[in-house]
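Example 3.
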Amino acid sequence: MQDSADFISFFYKLVSEAVRGLLAGWGIEKLADMYTLEPASRRGHGDLATSMALVASGMINHPPRQLAEELVAAMQANQGLKELTRFEVAGPGFINFFLKEDALVGAVGSALALGTHFGSGDPDHPEKILLEFVSANPTGQLHVGHARYAAYGDSLKRVLAFLGHDVTTEFYINDYGAQMEIFGRSLAARYAQTLGLEAELPVDGYRGDYPRRVAARIAGEIGDRLRDEVTPAPSAAAIDFFRERGCEIVLAEMKAELDGFRVDFDSWFSEASLYAVGAAQKIVDKLKGPGETETREGALWLKTTRYGDDKDRVLIRKHGEPTYFASDIAYHFDKATRPQHFNRLINIWGADHHGYVARMKAAMQALEPLVPENERPQLEIIIGQLVNVIERGERRQMSKRKGTMVTLKELLTGIGVDAARFFLVDRSHDSAMDLDMEKAKLKSEENPVYYVQYAHARICSIVRKAEADGFRMINYDGYSGLSNQERQLIMDVLFFPQVVDGAGRMREPHRLTAYGRALAASFHVFYHNCPVLGAEPQAASFRLDLCRLVRSTIATSLELIGVSAPQSM
RNA sequence: GCGCCCGUAGCUCAGUUGGAUAGAGCGUUGGACUACGAAUCCAAAGGCCACAGGUUCGAAUCCUGUCGGGCGCGCCA
């Protein structure tokens, strides 16, 4: 029937071919490649539907139903298409497709033959993508906000890679600057206290249990060797030591936790490493050349308003230190000029950083002359909304410095990886999310992830039984008499490639959780209405293959969001 | 004040880039296992898609305005 393409894409192209000439005659040929083909919304409307005639009607000002009739005539002239379906014009001018049974039966077999590649892509223009997310300060534990971005970013990576793009993930370590300094001082103070010395946390110091534990661990490593360096006030060398050692310990723990959350970064990039080579100063000097900067009020500014920002931004402060913005430009310049030649840089930022987008994009434009024209990557910034923690009906302020946030660790021990990832990815990243830990723990057993996993386990059970019973598959070409439930299940599973494609293109992995739920529901309904192994031999063979396809599709859709697909539960 | 995001069933949220009669889970009510797994299924109830205009064959979806909520608007990171 088709080679590597999935059935729906194949069908789409057949329709395109059939109507292209007609559309070209009307001067709207482009519609052949941008019309919509969707699952019919309800029974009686067939299996697939297109609003092509309605859209064409708006473009050339002809009555839609008449256009629909002409389009159908063109489709009927396409022999391949005619073998797959019959047509009907309905309502204001929809064209409904009623797929023939052998087309559906054949499509299941073809999809199954693709194995785990069903739904995977081979894009016309594969991209080399550097995807950056989480990027937390190494001054404490990862919290549920980070968990949300980790789940989202990692799922997006899996989806884009599945679609055939070359994706590298990166964690940018903000291990430089005032926050790190305060963290080092906080650890020094806690260290002194573990030795029984009098020491006070800095005013803005990191409170809570976590820095205390890190300090205790360092004390275990070095004993009282730095006793004289930390009191009455820590020496510069002591601060450096605690900052660096603390950073190492925190990062190691973050890696371990992310690993437990099934999030694996290809690269960890240190901000401090940029300073070690003077990268911020260097990039600022390069920007001075083409007149992108200006000195004002004793500071050096980047004229970002030239590129749509609402005000210019400081690169070098009055007292000579580069701003975070300057080092971020150095970082982005680095990303733009790596030997891999990424053609797309995707950053996932929290909503609290959205005000930063305009200046970063402006900076990228200012950098353009410094990067060869055919090597300039496109910068794409995705803003993820925040997670609100609800406690006893009230919002709880999350503060790392006060040590009052709900941690990723808490989430994992409370509700587990599968439930947590499913829950976090299930909502659009564009909507703020309320998380009530008490309810989340109570509700973890009714998390929809189990509904989807159960469908998978159930199918595994059927397949196991088939093997145990020595079930023999027979050829089911020509099988007919599809029930409504199996027809629905077939259509749902055949649409998987379009769902993955949309999830990748729109950067919306949450479409996969919705899809997984819908496919599982469709399967459960099928299961209750259509015996598999008990059916007559041809039906049994077909249904068993359908089950296998659904099983592997559920497994893939879960895999793409980092959730396991158990064989039994 | 300005900018971005959001407002859909009692609660938590989807809604395939503008499609046909608005969807799911939880909760409520009532049903289905001597059956390939009841972590399931079936049925009922529940809606002025915040509000008001506009665009068109058609709007939860796009535009304008209003109201309400979140987040920003540093020579912090």
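Residues 409 and 476 of chain A are 50 Å apart (CA to CA). Residues 448-559 of chain A form a domain with the Isoleucyl-tRNA Synthetase; Domain 1 fold (CATH 1.10.730.10).
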